[in-house]
Amino acid sequence: MFVDAPIKVRYGETDMMGVVYHANYLLYFEDARIAFLDALGFSYSQRIEEAGYMSPIRSVEIQYHQPLRYGETGFVRTSIAKNLPLRTVYRQQVFREGDDPKADKPLVDALVTVCVVERATFKPVNLKRTFPDLFAKYAEAQEAD
Q1: In Å, how far are 27, 109, 124, 140 from 120, measured between CA atoms?
Q2: Catalytic status, residue 15
Q3: Residues 43, 81: Cα–Cα separation, whole Å
Q4: Count of domains forming the chain
Q5: Verdict on whether the full-model pTM lies above 0.90
Q6: Marked catalytic residue, from 4, 15, 38, 133
Q7: Domain around 39
Q8: Which residue of 15, 57, 78, 107 could cross-link 66, Cys pair, CB 3.0 to 4.6 Å?
Q9: The domain that contains 79 carries what CATH number?
Q10: CA gap 117, 86 in Å, rounded
């Protein structure tokens, strides 16, 4: 399963060269992960935050190939690369509007690993036990090996 979230590059998101500042891709990725959860019918704010949990990033691995520039539009394609009880690895790829993800190389390619923790203690929880319905949806949506 893939979910595409749109990007419209704003001036304030670019550096002096007019290209998206590298750290701003993390913001695009976060919006795209929320869109992915929404597409699964699982609201982050209602189901995770209101239940007393958070989902922080554990690690990010990014390959920058080509930049997006001020005024351009694109999208982040999000999928589940790995679904484990204690962490989820999202594959997040940035493309220009009009690119074909099956044929075109992504501008930016990332693996973003998140976990779920108790809000009060920051103690990691087992997603399979705490949110079994989400874990099952991730399993169904996971990329084929």
Answers
A1: 25, 33, 11, 30
A2: yes
A3: 20
A4: 1
A5: yes
A6: 15
A7: 3-141
A8: 107
A9: 3.10.129.10
A10: 9
